[in-house]
# Entry
Amino acid sequence: MVENKLKQINIRVTEDEKERIAAKAEESGAKISDYIRNKLLNDSAEASSQFYQMRYDYIQKLYAQVTEHSKQQQKTIDQLFAMLEAEREKNQSLLENQPKAKRSFFKSWGAKFKKPKKTD
# Structure
């Protein structure tokens, strides 16, 4: 049985070339070695197909991360507004036990903090 051991090819590039290659690889969602290998072998339809599949998978992964992050942000915002609403209600009950002069201040403060409508 023949093993498929990976072989190494070393090339020399300038710092600028290295940065450009790394940026293009990152943009495509591929590792640098995969990106270079694909560029060198792109005359093959199979290699191109694999490369574009890697990019597609990478974009899907990023989309899932952004979606999850957005859900977490919305959850945090909802929690903050729930805490603020609880504090407002607490202050409202305290307000009812205060003289009229102090009530106007708390009413104006509570009116400033209304929960915005959700946008989907």
